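Fill in residues.
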């Protein structure tokens, strides 16, 4: 994983960021950004790289600019459970703001570009810029809400129903018809099913035309068909 840390460059990139309205600093003015003291690192992570690990002392929070990160908890038997997927605009590692160690392993599921924001800088800006504090509280609320939704949607119903819900999640609830998929091992860890079951369900969706493979791990989705399956229940 690479870090790029020039503070002048960081301020300039914050102002030009093409998803600035969706990320943590959305409500900061150019003057607010000019007052940023500690450098905000630009992080580039390849698939499989860790942004942070469970139990690490949290010295920073991260805003994802591009790509997808999985939050993972490892089981005593060595198995993994993916407890959430987060994409562009999401903020992770918020527990660091209350001096807590990270609660998950954060691993790049796709190539990721992110901003690493030191906790002390966030605290300072919250004092000087109440707008940032309000934004942080919204992010924390969103994090709790998304965790509840993920638990409900990916842990209940049949394997077929859960897979349909995952495809809808990846298409942003049908706003896009195309989405990328991941390794079958990751699918199993997301949905609480075996790798073999995940492979069989994907093959079944392809056979029935619910999804159509465009290239490796890229699919076009029948959104209405997925919604019908997702609402089937057990």
């Amino acid at each position: 994983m690479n870090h790029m840390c020039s503070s002048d460059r960081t301020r300039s990139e914050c102002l030009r960021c093409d998803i600035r309205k969706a990320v943590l600093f959305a409500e900061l003015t150019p003057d607010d950004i000019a007052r940023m003291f500690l450098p905000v690192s630009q992080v580039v992570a390849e698939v499989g790289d860790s942004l942070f690990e469970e139990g690490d002392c949290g010295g920073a929070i991260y805003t994802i600019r591009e790509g997808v990160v999985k939050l993972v908890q490892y089981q005593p038997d060595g198995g993994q459970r993916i407890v959430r997927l987060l994409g562009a605009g999401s903020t992770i590692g918020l527990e660091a703001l209350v001096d807590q160690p990270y609660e998950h392993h954060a691993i790049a599921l796709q190539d990721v570009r992110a901003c690493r924001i030191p906790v002390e800088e966030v605290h300072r800006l919250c004092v000087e810029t109440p707008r940032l504090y309000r934004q942080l509280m919204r992010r924390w609320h969103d994090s709790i809400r998304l965790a509840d939704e993920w638990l409900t949607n990916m842990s209940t119903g049949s394997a077929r129903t859960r897979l349909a819900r995952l495809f809808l999640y990846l298409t942003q609830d049908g706003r896009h018809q195309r989405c990328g998929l991941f390794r079958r091992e990751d699918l199993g860890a997301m949905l609480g099913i075996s790798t073999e079951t995940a492979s069989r369900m994907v093959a079944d969706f392809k056979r029935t035309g619910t999804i159509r493979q465009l290239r490796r791990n890229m699919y076009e989705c029948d959104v209405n068909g997925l919604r019908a399956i997702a609402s089937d229940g057990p």
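The radius of gyration is 19 Å.
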